Amino acid sequence: MGSHSEIPESPDVTEPLPTPVTPAGRDGLEAILTRPDRAVIALDFDGTLAPIVADPEQARAHPDAVPALAALAPEVASVAVVTGRPAGVAVRHGGFAGVPGLDHLVVLGHYGAERWDARTGTVNAPAPHPGVAAVRAELPGVLDRIGAWHGTWIEEKGRAVAVHTRRAEDPQAAFEALREPLTDLATRHGLIVEPGRMVLELRPPGTDKGVALLEYVREVRAEAVMYAGDDLGDLPAFAAVDKLRSDGVPGLLVCSGSTEVTELAERADLVVDGPAGVVRLLRRLAAHCSAP
Questions:
Q1: pTM of this prediction?
Q2: What pLDDT is stored for residue 250 in this prediction?
Q3: Of 27, 98, 203, 281, which residue is least crowded by CB atoms under 10 Å?
Q4: Residue 9 buriedness (CB in 10 A; 0-12 / 13-18 / 19+)
């Protein structure tokens, strides 16, 4: 779908922005550029701002992501990182704390259940769902019974728990073998399973990236929104932008492209080349939004 060319280290307003392939996307981009101070720029973390790695604990934001965000954030109403990770973890792995220019940044962690605000540097969060502790206790036994220990890895996420298969001998086969037993386990404890890129996350229902994004955009009374994501968990956020569009708020849907997930690329207004492409887009937006 959308395309881009390489951008030099010091972009300026003469660098063209990529053209969205849909009329709605073009309207969304135009609205952002016309009134950037009324726009929310929202982004997923893993796979969008940070390259996907085998061990999620080693994930870090693209080295140029924070400078790009710091250039863009002062020009817009807000930058929101919307992630399934705990907010504090995303802040650490992203390097967002104490960065000049990022006063307008928030991190909506655990699908919006937690919120970190750069202005205060604090995380606000409700009590965790009791089902998460129950699932955490039973999960090793479930994996052991189905012989799925080899190559799988359990990620503790505080308000959720995830099982990764990327390091298994056959990642896709392990992923498929785990779907039904983990869904049964989650259901017994009032949780849901969120599939992703070689990961199955067990978490409380009622919150997703779409709910978080919709509530935040309405809270700040944004008049335009961009959302960039890369995985199945970002589809609810795409749907939220569609909802906002139907309510008269222009929006731009960006896919941080990969060969693992095609659903987002098919629905996006603009496809860029992974986190590096997202960073280039953010830098171009910053240059155009700050132009006199």
A1: 0.79
A2: 98
A3: 98
A4: exposed
Predicted pLDDT at 3: 38
Name the residue type at position 87. Answer: A
Residue 1 is predicted with a pLDDT of 41
User: 191 with 205: CB under 8 angstroms?
Assistant: yes
Using 70 as the pLDDT threshold, list the residues of the chain that sit under it: 1-14, 147-149
State whether the Cα torsion 141-143-146-148 is positive or negative.
negative
- According to DSSP, the β-strands at 114-117 and 122-124 are antiparallel
**What pLDDT does 265 receive?**
93
Burial class (CB in 10 A: 0-12, 13-18, 19+), 38: middle
Residues in the chain: 292
Q: Which residues contact residue 185 at a Cβ distance below 8 angstroms, ignoring those fewer than 6 apart? A: 135, 138, 139, 142, 202
Question: What does the block give as tokens for 117?
Answer: 């605000």
Q: Tell me how many degrees the CA angle 88-265-155 measures, rounded to the nearest 5.
A: 30
- In the DSSP assignment, the letter for residue 54 is S
For tokens 């080899």, name the residue: 150
Which residue type sits at 220? Answer: V
Indicate if the alpha-carbon torsion angle 254, 273, 43, 159 is positive or negative.
Answer: positive
Residue 84 near residue 98 (C-beta atoms within 8 A): no
Q: Please give the helix or strand (H or E) that residue 257 lies within, else none.
A: none
With beta carbons less than 8 A apart as the criterion, state whether 120 and 47 touch: no
pLDDT (tens digit, 9 = 90+) per residue, 183-200? 999 999 999 999 988 999
pLDDT at residue 16 in the model: 87
Q: Bridge partners of 80? A: 42, 106
First to last CA, the chain: 31
Tokens 């995380």 sit at which residue? 123
153: exposed, middle or buried (C-beta count within 10 Å: 0-12, 13-18, 19+)? middle
To which residue do tokens 């090793």 refer? 140
